[in-house]
Input
Amino acid sequence: MLWLDVRRESRLAEMRSQFVSSVSHELKTPLTAIRMFAETLRMGRSTDHNTQAEYLDTIINESERLTRLLNNVLDFSKIEQGKKTYHLMPTSLPDVLHTAARALEYQQGFDLRLDVEDNLPIVNADSDAQPHRHAPRQA
Output
């Protein structure tokens, strides 16, 4: 019994460590984008008003994403209980793809071009849901 209890505690500690690592990574992404676009604007590297508006939109979107991520962390007890809930809302796939491509371009420093039809159907999706790369195994 003692061995099972120690094993269970060890698995819980590993799961908590993976959770902290995952949260840290997920928080860095919007923070990096916010800082990069803010610094670009501050240095005056972009004088085009459309580009400046796009950078400001990205800063706003990423700060909203950061808020949602932090709210998810505050809801940790539900995650720990294995009761993950999704908040499905009508979502435009072209918007999701263009937002992801723009984030990758700026974070990775390359030019990514998409050819996406704008008339794709609206789908129900949770914009905050992320695939788990290292999902802990259930006992």
